[in-house]
Amino acid sequence: MSNAGIEISGRIEKMTVFTVVLPVRSRRDHGIGAVAGEIKNVLVKLETADGIAGWGEASPWAAFTGTAEAAAAALDGHLRAVVVGRPAAHVTRIMAHANAILVGNWEAKAALEMALYDVRGRELTVSVSDLLGGRVRDHIPLSVSIANPDFDEDLELADRIVADGVRLFKIKTGVAGHAFDLKRLETLKQRFPEVEIRVDYNQGLTPLEALRYVPDIDSFEPGFIEQPVPAENWEVMKTLRGKIRSPLVADESVFTPAEAFKAAREGIADAFSVKIMKSGGMRRGQEIAAIAAANGMPCYGGDMFETGLAHLAGTHMCAATANISLGCEFYQATYYLETDLLQSPFPATDGRVTVPTGPGLGIAVDEDKVRHFTVEQAN
Ligand code: MG
Questions:
Q1: For each successive 10 residues of the chain (379 residues), what is the average pLDDT?
Q2: Spacing, Cα 201 to ligand 1 middle (Å)
Q3: Based on the domain organization, do 208 and 315 belong to the same domain?
Q4: Which long-range contacts (CB under 8 A, 24 or more apart) does 261-266 make?
């Protein structure tokens, strides 16, 4: 293939797709559904002819973005053809090609893009945040979610994470009744006056419930209130926004840059939760952040039930994007998974994530661990 006369080395010659099942420490109840026992994610490994390997992860949730089975099939059956034989230097072209041949499947595309940037960073000996424009911050405040139906267990977790330096909580509400939500908010506010508490309904309220309950939550002055109503209820989001003082965050209502543009224009929220599993990768996450910035809105670094691998990609995106300024929730590798898949721990300490400086994503995957938890593999 001609590339303006420049010889591009490092063609990707091998792609391997691993479906992994990972045990988790507790049940998590969210507005749209629960997760218990284990999660199923999909990892992709790209290897170049020069012996460089890069890794990516799809972290789907059936109730939210899609299924692991669909992500594995998208990578193995469709996206393999757009990446094998091409150099990682062509990441933008490869992702355009991926979007042309396959609609949606954002988690699979996020995994592919992540692996390509990991390869490219390792080839150039620069970090992924350097490739995304260069970092504007070296640390990102870490939020941990309070989502265990057993609130006493969550209080034990809260004591531990505050001792670790965490100063942001996000309570998952709209699952077990308004009284339970108010009780947890009141208890946590009294017990941890130093912690900023945020609230995330994950679409858990009907519009009528939201009009009744959200103003009560607002009176506790949470840092923000996220997605009280179903994703498509944009008009209710607008109405609620006019009734409360706390910032309103759109998560499930905004997956893509086009949705972010319309949401900003219609004023459905004060901020967006940007997740690479919704946007289809870091670059499209940055596009959403740019739309938000043009509208004077900040963004929050959201995630799904990810391992440290996808957390790393989210970390580099947040590091290289000025207005993803509301912190991140990359806590699962540290506080939720029984075993993470990285060779050294995901760098969440002292209540913040430290952006790795090494090449690519900055921390390599432990392939023995990946293989240990693999239930299906496609070469
Ligand atoms: Mg959310």
A1: 54 98 88 86 97 97 92 98 97 98 98 98 98 98 93 94 97 94 96 98 97 97 98 97 98 98 98 98 98 98 97 98 98 95 98 98 98 97
A2: 7
A3: yes
A4: 261/291, 263/234, 264/291, 264/292, 264/294, 264/295, 264/297, 265/295, 266/234, 266/238
Domain that holds residue 107: 12-125+367-378
pTM: 0.96
Q: Does 298 lie in the same domain as 231? A: yes
Pair (70, 176) in one structural domain: no
* Distance from the alpha carbon of residue 95 to the mean position of ligand 1, in angstroms: 26
Neighbouring residues of the ion ligand 1, judged by CB less than 5 Å: 200, 226, 251
Task: Please check whether residues 106 and 167 belong to one and the same domain.
Answer: no
Name residue 24's beta-bridge partners. Answer: 337
Same domain, residue pair 189 and 327: yes
Question: 22 CA to middle of ligand 1, Å?
Answer: 22
